[in-house]
# Entry
Amino acid sequence: MKATLFATCLGDQFYADACADAVRLLRYAGVDVDVPQSQTCCGQPAYNAGRRLEAIRMAQQTLDTFDSADYVVLPSGSCAGMLRCFYPDLINNDVERAQALADRTYELSHFLVEVLGIQDLGSGLKGKRIAYHHSCHALRELGVRNQPISLLKNCGAEVVTWEADEECCGFGGLFSAKLPEVSAAMADRKLDTLSTVDFVTSTDGGCLLQLSGRGNRRQLSVQFRHLASLLWDGVGS
Amino acid sequence: MTSVNPQKYPEASAQALKDKPEVRNTVTNSTNLANKKRTAAYQEVDSDTWKDWGRDVKSHALTNLDQYLEQAETQLLANGAKVHWAETAQDAQKILENIVLDHNISSVVKAKSMLSEELGINEHLEKLGVLVRETDLGEYIIQILGDRPSHIVGPAMHLSLEDCQRLFHEKLGTPLDGKPEILAAAAREVLREEFLAADMGISGGNFLVAETGTVALIENEGNIRLSTSLPRVHVALVGIEKIVPRLEDVSGFVQLTSRAATGQPIGNFFSLIQGPKRDGDIDGPEEVHVILVDNGRTRLLADDKAWESLRCVRCGACMNICPVYRQTGGHPYGWTYPGPIGAIIAPGMLGLEEAMPLPYASSLCGACVDVCPVRIPITELLVHWREKAVEEGFTSAIESAGIRAYTKAAERPGIFRAVGAMLRHMPLDVIGRALPILSGWVKERSAPESSAKSFMQQWKEGIE
Amino acid sequence: MTARSSILDRVRIALANREVVAHPGSFKGWRPFIHSGTPTEQFTEMFEKAGGEVVSFKTQVEASLWARGFLADFNSFSVGELAQGRLNEGVEPDEWIEGIDPSVVEAGASLAFGAVAETGSLIMTPQDGRRAQLLPPVHMVFVDQAKIYETLSEGLVALKNEVLPGDNESGGLPSAVGLHSGPSKSADIGQVLVTGVHGPGRVVTVIVESD
# Structure
């Protein structure tokens, strides 16, 4: 089986190791991974800012890049959501191709569980207490809710209850920079309701940048680690 | 409603967080409670089917609005009610003023009406020397405090118990540690006198049933029933979008709205008002006036996407679940309607320029879409207004230039990687302070650290 | 050009190219579980859950006897126009109990048009007197078991179709209808629930099982 990885603009720069771990995970699962060099940005930040024309251009670029892929796998719920839920409407002069791409696009944990049928990766997370943050796009656009949690649990982790786990972290792309005080207050709401855990994780790098950025400013000791990296840790020794 | 100031949202929200951190706690607790109740209430029924039905009835009503408005008017007139039409807030104030003068009104009891806030009714009446008393407990609290409502269902929900105890102690002489029952009893005593003495009652309207000419009102306290039954004149202010086609339909909407708003199967008192008292009625108003209000609703109706926001039943579920709203409460939004619904109707009703930057006061998390009882596509409409803001030139030139440059680079992978590589080796807090867009980030957060090697670099070098 | 024609014109222009949405049909209160009890049982459950009280009697005479006893415990009470006859069922005309002004009493008696099981609501009409339904802090309401409707739709349609005393012959809703579903309540003071703010803080439904 072949799958194509879309690292995403944010992943490439800030979560490169997690993207590499995603490649390792897929190979471990028996998948041949390809990484087309012409990939750049899915266009979501532009789309959310109301810049439709720019978003369409980046979507077109992405569509051309991944056109021939059997599966497109992303270590990001929001970018996967962009392709799956918004491309068919956005690329309205090429709806069929856009829809075909959407149908083959998956967030990483969704792909592992639903397409590859994997439940157990290993026991490398035994004894670890993990708080799972639901990225809004993964949860509400893709319906990815249980897959990451069951994968983590099956690696031996204790996934703790977290009152605010489904609440938005306050990233929202440019929102975090335009309304920084409110955005920080949203991150605080998440961080203040955490119990003692080893890691906070999520499918999305943007969310983790937001939470870790605020957490570090507040000098909190909790560690933030991308789901792909934790799951690769989970494969274990 | 005094001044309208959505444009101040960024400063106002930052100020609120700094100066009144307790509001964040109070509102978070209140909305958490409301969300729990609503979730439980939705789970008792096939909420998806209810919401689909609610969406379709409202869309049907709105896409046939002229016919239903005419039918409603005909029925109301047949019921003995008087019907007025107001294009603007000023028109509504004038119509109300004429009724006040015609009937020698000196005192008014008000049932809670967000439309009356929107239209600035209280201020106008007070200028005429009319005594205006809010009777909904939350609105009464706001009135004696001299504050503005912060939420469309619970106007005083930004105030804690301690806030209320201090206020009632000061204004009504209750003990500083008075339990809620004591405070409520004090308010009841004051307001009772007002109900019995008032010349006129003013209400809003949750729904206007075209088939029977009915103004339908939901509440829990009984102050709406009292305000619309005791005084000799009743005036109902009703937005034209409140139309519901049949009497049967309202039986669904009262239940849907109650579950969405407070988690109740139905509001404790539900009034269906057809017109003034008839022969055989012992009591009731001698005259009932219904003022049908536009005030920007037709402008919203004309928008091919945003018209769907007119389905709103004013349940407040969207602001209860909104993670942005709960950080500050409703005041920073600077308008009668805060939160997600405020952000999508303000551009239509006030005009986009005046409503900016409310469509941007959202992370697009979509929680509101999940809970809306009439399935308003709130996040889609936020993006829709953002697109309009870009088209009409209401967004920052720097941001435009930045995104254009970014897009150009994104279309040229080689350049994209090169720029990425260059930025990686600059300290981001330095860039942050230089680039206006990123400066916001570093104000409240540590700058993110780039990975030592980009992923594409690692891929090129081979991943083990 | 009047405001009316101006507004209607703007509506028509706005809708000129809009696709009309069809009415989806009647609201059916879709639920995962149908209530297994009778309408009376469901009404009682809902009303009590909301903080109301429910008592039931086989005949009006029994109900009225109880009701007179209930009201006698208060210093003063009011009686709605239509409730007069019910309250005095089985009493000689010269010994009829009458109430006084609702604004000064401790309790009041009313007669409901009917009730609704699915929402636990009493359907109150104006002929009985609105002040009597709203001003007394304790409110006692007679309702016939035969007029307890399963759904709110049924109850409202029944009301619309029935000709009430004092109405014109063509039926239709009276001047105002109130659905009362329990004691008056508010959580506006620090989110703490209090009862009896404005409307009656205690409501007792007296179900009369048969005529």
About this structure: The longest helix of chain A spans residues 52-66. The radius of gyration of chain A is 17 Å. The mean pLDDT of chain A is 96.
